[in-house]
Amino acid sequence: MEIFNGRAATEEYMSTHSLTFSTPEMTLKKFALWLGDQVNVPGKNETVPRLLTYINDVNNQSNNSDFLPDTDESFKPSGAVTDMFKDLAQVKSPTNCHNCNYPLKTASKFCPKCGSKQQ
Ligand SMILES: [Zn+2]
After folding, report:
1. CA–CA distances in Å: residue 95 to residues 6, 75, 101, 103, 119
2. I need a labelling partner for 82 at 20 to 30 A (CA). Which of 19, 88, 106, 110 fits?
3. C-alpha distance from residue 57 to each of 42, 60, 106 (Å)
4. Cβ–Cβ < 8 Å for 10, 28
5. Which residues surround ligand 1, an ion (CB under 5 A)?
6. Quick one: pLDDT band at residue 51, thresholds 50, 70, 90?
7. How far away, in angstroms, is 90 Cα from ligand 1 center?
8. pLDDT digit string (tens) for 4-37?
9. For 105, which DSSP code?
10. In terms of DSSP H, where are the helices of the chain?
11. Local structure of residue 40 (DSSP, 8 states)
12. What's the rounded Cα separation, in Å, for the pair 101 and 94?
């Protein structure tokens, strides 16, 4: 049986394209067009749609789950944006004044409400 390894294709696409400035519509269109690009077959003097380079023969493979599409809808940064979101995750969450509990901006040194000094 031959299957399309969509996981490998999406991971390859996301690791070689920044999706930062794309809308979901643009990303979908560009990914579909990217899959349809004519690419050279290694060692042969011919081109095929890129999609065909992700067709795997799984007859002799026991672990089919490696090729199942990832249907988890939760957002996990990957590829070119991984580092960017790693930084965002490390930004300190907003804090409150330890004296009056007024919400403070990150890195505030004084509370704008009660004026007490923040750590
Ligand atoms: Zn305060």
Report:
1. 42, 25, 9, 6, 11
2. 106
3. 17, 8, 53
4. no
5. 97, 99-100, 102, 111, 113-114
6. very high
7. 25
8. 888 899 999 999 998 888 888 999 999 999 999 9
9. -
10. 6-16, 24-36, 82-90
11. E
12. 12
